[in-house]
Amino acid sequence: MAQKPVLHRDDPEAEPLVGNIKVTRNDWLNVAMDVLISDGVEQVKVLALAERMQVSRSSFYWYFKSRQDLLDALLKTWEQTNTAGMVRQAETPAETITGAVLNVFRCIANPDLFNTALDFAVRDWSRRSGKVRSLLDRSDRRRVEALTGMFARYGYPDREAVTRAKVLYYMQLGYEMADPNETHAHRLEMTSEYLKVFTGREPMSEEMADFTEFTKQHWDV
């Protein structure tokens, strides 16, 4: 279960706030994102967020011009986290294609690289907004293009590269949405088999060992 955002003022490691400032811009963004994920975009309201943080609504306007400005900032955060994160992982050098796919799999293990709950919230939002739908379509294209380029770097023909990229991408989204009742340990155990399906290649033992160590930082295995 995702943790609730910690406000700057409640973080013992954060620099103390000065003057009359009680919350930061990131506090507004993080709490708004939490509401977006849990309750949908319709519930991202300035007054409700202010009450949740126990501050006046007027402090919102120190950081944002309007509610729409906040919503635009949420979309920018989503693109910078999820789309940029997946593209970066797909472009990370690896000795083999299985190692490259494992780099992408790190997105699933670490929500700092790819926030799955946020992605689903934006997809739900896109059903109500043509603007968000256009942004989502653009992001999906960028992600698939990055994955296609990843397969192409390892010698897959163009048509096969884009097919494998789409299978990998859309299967992973569907897998996360299905939320199967299985342990992280089982998922890790199946990873080498998934790699063979996605790439047609056997992963190297060193690659699997590195990925296993990485997941231990984020999964209960």
Automatic annotation (TrEMBL):
GO terms for molecular function: DNA-binding transcription factor activity; transcription cis-regulatory region binding. Residues 45-64 bind DNA. SUPFAM superfamilies: Homeodomain-like (SSF46689). Keywords: DNA-binding, Transcription, Transcription regulation. It comes from the Bacteria. PROSITE patterns: HTH_TETR_2. Residues 22-82 form the HTH tetR-type domain. The keyword Cell division does not apply. InterPro entries: Homeodomain-like_sf, HTH-type_TetR-like_transc_reg, HTH_TetR. This is TetR family transcriptional regulator. It comes from Leisingera methylohalidivorans DSM 14336.
